[in-house]
Amino acid sequence: MQDFADRLSETARDVEALLGDLLAEKPQPGEIARPARLLAAMRHAMLGGGKRLRPALTLEVARLFGRADAGVMRVAAAIECLHGYSLVHDDLPSMDDDDIRRGRPTVHKAFDEATAILCGDALQTLAFDIIAAPETDDDALVRAELVLGLARASGLGGMAGGQMLDLEAESSRLGEAATLEMQAMKTGALIRFSCEAGAILGRADAEACRRIRRYGEIIGLAFQLADDLLDATATPEALGKATAKDQARGKATLVALYGIQETRARLANLVAEAEGLLAPFGPAAAPLAEAARFVALRES
């Protein structure tokens, strides 16, 4: 069996290829035209590499329940578009004010702020366009469930709301519970849905969906803990972006609350819980257990 890092690289190549097709020059039915500058900005944002963790989680969970087809890949690409929009907007001067993303200029630096805002807007709507299209799944109810799930994970009560709480936290000290809630919304909600989407596509039963949902929550928290740890300990060269930004801006992080050693211990506990949740699925869930270890122990 391929290890997860190899599977992740394979997923990244496949998702990149599909995103390239989805961001082609030719307008789709119902579209009037695709402005060249906006399309170039979207391609800059989406085709510049990245781990593609969220699509990989969708694909691995769907495989666990017997699905591995073009429709699953489309949902994975849609989630990546939603994630890409959030990065474009997060990098803006009014948000995190970052100049580098994945070792390249951020969209507002490579183009301009107005184009970056429109780029994010267009990527967000493209995500729902992809999922809602009939070729994603034959069952309109499944497509509707996916659209609803993505909206809830990314909107007011999910990612966007979490970003608002993160901005507010720069001027106030958050305790552990408030920091966990903020991180669960800003980062965790979309990662959790990436897992849930695979279960929805695979028509998993209620108990399996419950386990996958909790697994997704664990992966989301582990990702944020590892991200905070890397921001505190890694070099900019290793990450392809600036580091130590959270401390400089007084942001609420779990590493600031727990310390480095306690954070590492909590990551180990999360991996163990993830493995326990997956145990009833047997050997078929091994890639997901490996994904948990990969997220918790990553170095970039």
From TrEMBL:
Cellular component GO terms held in the UniProt record: cytoplasm
SUPFAM superfamilies: Terpenoid synthases (SSF48576)
Cofactor field: Mg(2+)
PROSITE patterns: POLYPRENYL_SYNTHASE_1, POLYPRENYL_SYNTHASE_2
Cross-referenced InterPro entries: Isoprenoid_synthase_dom_sf (IPR008949), Polyprenyl_synt (IPR000092), Polyprenyl_synt_CS (IPR033749), Prenyl_diphosphate_synthase (IPR053378)
GO MF annotation list: metal ion binding; prenyltransferase activity
Protein name, UniProt field: Probable farnesyl diphosphate synthase
Organism: Kaistia soli DSM 19436
Upper lineage: Bacteria, Pseudomonadati, Pseudomonadota, Alphaproteobacteria, Hyphomicrobiales
